[in-house]
Amino acid sequence: MTTETQAQQWPMPKFYFMVDWGSATNIPFQEVSGLDIEAQPIEYRHGNSPVFSKISMPGIAKNSNVTMKKAVFAKDNQFWDWFQKIKMNTIERQDVVIKLVDEGGNPTMTWTLQNAWPTKISSTDLLEDGSEVAIESIEISHEGLIIDNS
Q1: Are 102 and 12 in contact (CB under 8 A)?
Q2: Does the pLDDT at position 100 exceed 80?
Q3: CATH code, 48
Q4: Where in the sequence is the domain holding 20, given as residue range(s)?
Q5: Number of domains making up the chain
């Protein structure tokens, strides 16, 4: 068995990933969740159907909001700056690209969130006797998810 064949048989670890949005690249996130898409089922039965049950067919696609968490750094206002651009039903929409990378830093799988915009920002909780890193999160809505596993 060749080394290339062995490498293709091992599943990818999920801990090495990069996030890009707008002009910012390789943003160091701790966690990304909510990369889901589903087709909402439509149930239908016409009046003269000989079958006494409904049929199910695919309806509108539904995208989940994506939540991303990262450490708080001094003078880093990326989340807040983007959120501040929401004004009377207008927002700066951006594509967000999440890349699962191999040990060489090469993308092996990508998720592209089309026309994404922030819906919620959660700041860190504060605890006087805590020793953890301060973590903030952003929840992003988007209009489509493209998955590329090439």
Answers
A1: yes
A2: yes
A3: 2.30.110.20
A4: 3-148
A5: 1
